[in-house]
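Researcher: Please predict.
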Amino acid sequence: MDTQFLDILHLIQQSRNNAIKAVNVELINLYWNVGAYIKQKLSVSEWGDKTVEELAIYIQKNNPELKGFNRRGLYRMIQFYETYASHSIVSAVRTQLQNAENQNDIIVASSRTQFEPQDIKNTILVQLSWTHHRTIFSRCKTEEEREFYIRMSIKENYSVRELDRQISASLFERTMIGNEKLSPAAKEIHTDIANTFKDSYVFEFLNLPEPHNETDLQKGLIKQMKNFILELGRDFLFISEEYKVQVGNSDFYIDLLFYHRGLQCLVAFELKADKFKPEHLGQLNFYLEALDRNVKRENENPSIGILLCKDKDTEVVEFALSRSLSPTMVAEYQTQLPDKKLLQQKLHDLFERSKEIE
């Protein structure tokens, strides 16, 4: 009977979750259209700031149970609409938007033009909560960055707290830089590897002593595995620490071994509590060869290696990886949140170098 009761409980929970999602879809669609309506009125100078204030008071007076429709809330809805009105992620309504723009002369000529609601229920915008959206469009400065966090929030199922932490940890910048720093072999073997790895990882949750060694780092990551997975991405499945591979009559131990569901391959992490040295790659390449020969299954892709160092010289890493035949990456870890402005400058410099090479 317990099993049957559990089935009923699952049905109830699933129905509740579906109801919550349906309500959120309607809510996001509503906020979009309220923002679009007020924006249209302000654009033709039919309304002013005082009118928006009067609207907020009117809503509060007639529907005091409604929350979020004060003056600040209404302007957030306008900001929401303005932020994504011309973005490709709302392509389903772009025709409507273009038609509205073409009729702008008619709108100016007649302030009584009827507002046509726009349906964005088939866009990815409705897959996030309003609080998620507020966090993204208030903290992210570029179109690319906003879309990145929208898609990552959906993919990784970030809570608002987790999303806020990832923005503070400059996930966008670190991932974009990481895409450029993958070895040629990694890009060739795993064509869908983009946005999977980062140039640097942030472990501010470890509270590591200074100085610390590889053992301290490894034990800290194992103890904080939930936060570690959040930093890596939820497609990573932890297999083992000190994973043993046998070659000939000798045993070797990989610091941390994961499996990535999306890439369908093993991912070996080798930890170094000091600065990157080219000889570190030889050890990691050896581990990848052992994994591919003795552990990898036929249906799985070649293994990937991540060398995680306390520090690295970008030019040394570039030289070391340029002729590497293994799908490897060298990343650094930080024990405190990174300087966002510094990462933005690094990303800008990287794009400029790419343009020069092209």
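Model: The two ends are 67 Å apart (CA to CA).
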